[in-house]
TrEMBL record:
Gene Ontology cellular-component annotations: cell envelope
Main location: other
Annotated region described as Disordered, given as residue ranges: 510-595
GO molecular function (one): lyase activity
InterPro entries reported for this sequence: Chondroitin_lyas, Hepar_II_III_C
Source domain of life: Bacteria
Domain Heparinase II/III-like C-terminal: residue ranges: 300-514
The name this protein goes by in its record: Heparinase II/III-like C-terminal domain-containing protein
UniProt cross-references to Pfam families, sorted A to Z: Hepar_II_III_C
Biased amino acid composition, Pro residues: 572-584
Subcellular location: Cell envelope
């Protein structure tokens, strides 16, 4: 590996030799007619025709010949250089769109091989697949010179992928790079080295990221979607070219598709964990239909670290594991034990989501952006400057079902090194899916620290206060939220759909210490067998409280007295430090009032 890194520049220079004018034969057209599987956005195509780009809701000018700019966000640069926007021009379908597509591809090819930004093989792979997938739209009717240059560029840039892989791309982006290499391999069968290298690399690329339960190693549902998408495209390319399917690709698609289905809410969008957004439900369904013919939903995701409770119309998805391994934890959130809850097609309790904007992206990684416990200014994870995680908590989970009722128990010790103790969360979902109950505990606390538990609400949910709780109104149902803790309503944000939407959140804080036991335990929602577990520990009798030594007692000598000088060199035992008791549990429930 070190030798390959040292020779990287030489390998790239060799790969980017133009085959035109040499001894190599450059075919006039692809041997296989590939078709891009995904729909584009005609509005985006119209913007391109007008020399504008529309990406993630932001409009930017399209400047001729400008393919890189240090001021651009990373995601925008990848999108522009990846040429996936050819789908948008094809969707527009007008002759002006065809001409624009051809013009932009020609401008890219006008760059000398040394000028082309090809250092990222995943962007190159996306570009090659886009060129071949939209070839019939923009290139088939072009003149011979354009098509010859395009075929030569395909050869050069496919060689650059071979020169840079596997070191320069990992995760689902490694699959994107290999997809582009595969597309060129089947389109130019006179270059068998492309297919040979693809088959040599694909097994490892899959085994490094797709877990036994079908989940993705980053624990980000959106990364899993991208992974399934790349596998679906590979299967299509292999089938069209009549190339025998590698077992690893077919097996990975059959495992990951059920896992992806398990990470969808009733509205068809993705759950918001570790940097994911909802994504378009129709697109997700299209990807799944291409990846696997079965419609199986994974019952459990033990290796991925997610718990899924589903009864009736109710669905709860919880983050029940620690961060991904080093190297794959760049999008990890400190949202361990957080959950999202939906009923039918309506999300009720959510996490805040993610963003590609730097400030938002960082803020949304902290516990406050999740439906979970938060301890003052403490964080259960330590984020490195490069975005990785240096301090990862231990997380446990246990699920059970009794008489149709689901029980999920989870703990994490992320706050323990800072004195915050062990956080445990127990959640029950009844057999009809009409009652969700929770018990939150913080044990072995060694420092006094304020805590709160946040429940972020979806923007479609409206709140109405009742005497002993709050009604949550959705377009189809009304739910009732109760807690024995103090409930405040605060502003929140929701970025699940790629934009920042205002919403509300419930913030639970422990009830006053002088609240009577009868007040604390009077709610009928919690099962009777939990009463003993929830009993508030009695106050410590005064005679058992550790005495605070007084000045002059021998432990804390008055420095003005002679005794203090005699004690200067005496090793004294430290005064006893009273340990803060475990926090009383907080209970809450969410029950369906009417549908």
């Amino acid at each position: 590996m070190p030798l390959r890194r040292w020779t990287r520049g030489a390998r790239l220079a060799y790969a980017m030799r133009n085959p035109l004018g040499g001894f190599a034969r450059v075919p006039a057209a692809p041997a296989v007619a590939l078709r891009d599987l995904w729909s584009g956005n005609a509005a985006g195509g119209e913007q391109l025709v007008r020399n504008q780009t529309l990406f993630e809701g932001t409009q930017r000018p399209l400047i001729e010949g400008e393919w890189d700019n240090p001021q651009w966000p990373e995601a925008y640069r990848r999108w522009l250089q990846g040429f996936t926007w050819l789908q948008d021009l094809r969707e527009l379908g007008a002759e002006s769109a065809r001409i624009k597509a051809r013009t932009l591809v020609a401008q890219w090819m006008e760059q000398t091989p040394a000028e082309r930004p090809i250092s990222d093989p995943s962007i190159t792979g996306a570009r090659l697949a886009a060129w071949l997938g939209c070839y019939e739209f923009f290139a088939a009717s072009a003149d011979d010179s354009f098509r010859q240059q395009l075929m030569a560029s395909l050869i050069m840039e496919a060689r650059s992928i071979m020169a840079l892989m596997p070191e320069e791309a990992k995760g689902w982006r490694a699959l994107t790079a290999l997809k582009g290499l595969l597309a060129v391999a089947v389109s130019l069968p006179d270059y068998p080295e492309f297919l040979t290298r693809y088959l040599r690399l694909i097994d490892t690329a899959i085994s490094q990221q797709i877990l036994p339960d079908g989940g993705h190693i980053t624990r980000c549902p959106e990364d899993l979607l991208q992974c399934v998408r790349e596998l679906a495209e590979m299967l299509y390319i292999l089938q069209v070219a009549r190339v025998p399917l590698p077992t690893s690709v077919l097996d990975a698609a059959n495992r990951s598709a059920p896992a992806l289905r398990a990470m969808r809410h009733g509205d068809g969008g993705l759950a918001l964990f570790n940097g994911s957004c909802e994504q378009n439900p129709q697109f997700i369904e299209h990807v799944l239909s291409r990846a696997s013919r079965t419609r199986v939903v994974a019952a459990g995701l033990p290796e991925s670290g997610f718990a899924r409770l589903n009864n009736g119309r109710a669905l709860l998805i919880a983050d029940a594991a620690s961060a991904a391994p080093a190297g794959y934890d760049g999008s990890a959130h400190a949202g361990m034990l957080s959950f999202e809850f939906s009923s039918g097609r309506q999300r009720l309790i959510v996490n805040c989501g993610s963003s590609i904007q730097r400030g938002w992206a960082e803020a949304l990684r902290y516990p406050a952006a999740h439906s979970v416990l938060e301890l003052a200014d403490l964080t259960p994870m330590r984020f490195d400057a490069d975005g990785g995680i240096s301090q990862k908590p231990q997380v446990t989970r246990q699920t059970s079902v009794q008489d149709g009722m689901h029980c999920l128990s989870m703990t994490h010790d992320g706050y323990k090194p800072q004195g915050g103790g062990l956080y445990s969360r127990k959640i029950y979902l009844d057999k009809d899916g009409t009652l969700l109950q929770g018990i939150e505990k913080l044990e072995d606390v060694s420092i006094p620290v304020p805590l709160c538990i946040r429940f972020h609400l979806h923007p479609d949910v409206s709140i109405e206060q009742e005497e002993d709780g709050y009604l949550l109104h959705t377009p189809e149902e009304t739910w009732f939220f109760w807690s024995d803790a103090h409930i405040e309503i605060e502003e929140s944000v929701y970025l699940g759909q790629g934009k920042c939407e205002p919403t509300r959140q419930f913030v639970l804080t422990p009830a006053q210490s002088d609240q009577s036991d009868e007040d604390v335990h009077s709610s009928p929602e919690i099962a009777p067998e939990e009463e003993a577990e929830l009993a508030t520990p009695p106050d410590m009798p005064e005679e058992q409280m550790p005495a605070v030594p007084e000045v002059g007692s021998g432990l804390l000598a008055d420095p003005s007295t002679p005794e203090a000088h005699a004690l200067e060199n005496t090793l004294l035992p430290p005064p006893p430090v009273p340990q803060a008791p475990s926090k009383p549990p907080i209970r809450w429930s969410l029950s369906l009032k009417n549908a």
